[in-house]
Amino acid sequence: MAATSRPMAATELLDHAEYSHTVWPLEPARSGKLPVAKGRGGPIHIAYEVHGHGSRHLVWIMGLGGMKYAWQRQTKDFAHLQGDRYSSLVLDNRGIGESDKPFARYTTSEMARDVVDLVDHLGWTGKRELHIIGISMGGMIAQELAMLVPDRICTLSLVSTASGLFNTSGFLENLLNRANLFIPKAIDQQIAAVKHNLYTEEWLARPDELEHVVEPFPTNGDRFAANEMWKRTHPEYVTKKGFILQAIAAGWHHKSGAQLAELAQKVGKRRIMVVHGTKDRMITFPHAVVLWRGLEHGQGKTGREYLGMEVEDDVWVEGEVEKRFIKEQGHVIPIEMRKEFQGWLETLFERGETINGEKGVAT
């Protein structure tokens, strides 16, 4: 299909030959629904899949309104193409997908405890065993997880996330767009607004880069829109209640500079990576600088946080906590920069395993 100058409409997406293949049928080695949160409001059943059978245990934590399949590129790249090396755990956080959606106060700390229950169930309980990757709200959950079990973490990757939200314009705009998932007359406008908050215009306009089964979509943006339409045809997976409860958890998340310094000290600075784009409209770039400065220096907000702060020289100063601050990049770096992101993670994983060896940690 030839590229088009306009985004495909919702009705066109549903008729596209590739529409039914937007979610890949990646076969897990293990899957189920685990009752978690015993004694803290449970049981809450958390849907999960483990892909691959390698000795390196990767835990992928998705963000607000995202389901486990949203990691499918990374699931394929690590646990299917390298299944003898990696085992990848993907899950639906409480409130989304196939997991339970109880009406309760959600917090990132409680959601982190859900993950601990899950990795305990899998037997991933060794010292410095877990490679944690969290994006957006998932990065907030990952911070809480690191506070709970720092000695079990080999590496910690915090992607497009924050230690707390102090500039919420993009976050609230995306929340409002997605909270109206089921208003048919607004679908095309909603999807356009979500695209704008999550991705760069350049990537959206490029020809569909993803592996296809029948034929590619005209553009990357059209493929994303098709996936959004797929979510809208599965209302049992994405509910207003669950989405808003997750949003409350993200909105209330907060880690002070002192708490971040404690986290970095217990996990180990060289085991941590912060990834963020300077043009992120969902969680704006200053949040990444505050997060990195907290981990590296124990600083909180400095009063210099503003949208143009990427021009400040000290933003680009190196430290023991690795930073990947990408100029002109948006929120969903694992999709827009798939191969680069894979390389950054593999380098971090190797460093973490090397540190384990240096410290005599059995692997």
Automatic annotation (TrEMBL):
SUPFAM superfamilies: alpha/beta-Hydrolases (SSF53474). The keyword Hydrolase applies. Residues 57-292 form the AB hydrolase-1 domain. InterPro entries: AB_hydrolase, AB_hydrolase_1, AB_hydrolase_fold. Keywords: Hydrolase. It holds the Pfam family Abhydrolase_1. Coiled coil: none annotated. This is Alpha/beta hydrolase-like protein. It comes from Polyplosphaeria fusca.
